Amino acid sequence: xxxxxxxxxxxxxxxxxxxxxxxxxxxxxxxxxxxxxxxxxxxxxxxxxxxxxxxxxxxxxxxxxxxxxxxxxxxxxxxxxxxxxxxxxxxxxxxxxxxxxxxxxxxxxxxxxxxxxxxxxxxxxxxxxxxxxxxxxxxxxxxxxxxxxxxxxxxxxxxxxxxxxxxxxxxxxxxxxxxxxxxxxxxxxxxxxxxxxxxxxxxxxxxxxxxxxxxxxxxxxxxxxxxxxxxxxxxxxxxxxxxxxxxxxxxxxxxxxxxxxxxxxxxxxxxxxxxxxxxxxxxxxxxxxxxxxxxxxxxxxxxxxxxxxxxxxxxxxxxxxxxxxxxxxxxxxxxxxxxxxxxxxxxxxxxxxxxxx
Length: 357
Fold this sequence. Notes:
- By secondary structure, this protein is of the alpha/beta class.
- It has one domain: Alpha-Beta Barrel (TIM Barrel), CATH 3.20.20.
- 35% of the residues lie in helices and 12% in strands.
- It has helices spanning 29-38, 100-104, 112-121, 142-146, 148-158, 176-184, 199-205, 212-224, 245-254, 271-282, 287-296, 316-332, 346-351, and strands at 48-51, 58-60, 70-72, 75-76, 105-108, 130-132, 163-167, 188-193, 229-236, 259-264.
- Helix 6 (176-184) links the parallel strand 7 (163-167) and strand 8 (188-193).
- Helix 9 runs parallel beside helix 12 (316-332).
- The longest helix has 17 residues, at 316-332.
C-alpha cells in the first residue's frame, strides 16, 4: 500500500509486499481520489494492538554476530518506527508487512510473564542472561498500557535470574524500583540506544522514540542508581550520523555509560525498499550519496547476510567508522568496564529451598 501524502509520526511510508504471501494489497489512485471527493480518510494511521498466544517466550540466539545467547520479546512490531530497524522483516512471519504494518499492528504477548516463570522453573534450565528486546523494544508505547515488561522484571527478581534490557525509551525509569533491587544482586544490565545528538535527525529516523535529552538523562539516572549502562550507538549510517561518533561517545560517557557498542547499518530483505523510499521522500538531496555509501560498506549492495561482516561492514568508509570508534573508546572510555551478571543465585530460588552442602 502506498499513500500519496507523507504519513506523520511514522517511519515507513508504505507497506511493502509480504515475501511469504501470494497476494498483494494495493491502494489504487481511483480509490484515493474517491476518498478525497467524499472527504473520507483512506487510512486513519491508528495503531492496533493484537493479542497473540505463543507457547514459549525465551528464544535461543544462534547468530555469532549478536552478543547474547537468549532473548525474549514481550511485543512484536514496534511503534517507535525506526526506519532502519532490522526487526521489520520478522513481521512478515506473522503475515504482515515490514513497512507500516510493523509500526501499526503491534502483537501483544500478555502471557509472557507466565511463560517466563515456567521457563525459569524448568529443571533443565541453567541460568544464563536473557535479554529483553532482542528484536523489538520492550518499552515501546504499548508498555504504558499493558505493563508486560514490568511483570517480567518481577519474575526475574523473584527467581534471582540475570536479565539484560535493550531500549531507547525513557519509560524504563518507571521500573527503577525493580531495577534497583535486581542491581543489588548484580542481576541486571541496560543497553540504551542513542543514534544521534540531533533532534532533527532523531525525529525523522526514529519518529516515535523519546527525545535525545531524555535518553541521556535515562543513562544518568540508571548509572547514579548503580545500574550498569551500555550505550548502543547503532546503527551508524554513513552520511546521516557517521560524523557524530566522537560526540555521541563523549555524551554517553559523561552521563555515566560504562561502555558502548555500534553496528554499521545494513538493509536486508524488505528494509532496503522501505529505507530507499523513505530517504528519497525525506532527504532527497542526500539520498543517492547515503545509499551509495551504505552499498560501499557491504560489497556494493544494501543487503549483507555474511556472518562476521554484516554488522561491521568493509571497505574505506567502514574502516573510517572503525577508526573513529577506536579513538572514541580510547578517549572517553579508558578504564571503564561493563560488569558481568551473576548466574549463581538462581538455583536456590528456582527450587525454593537452600541447597545442602
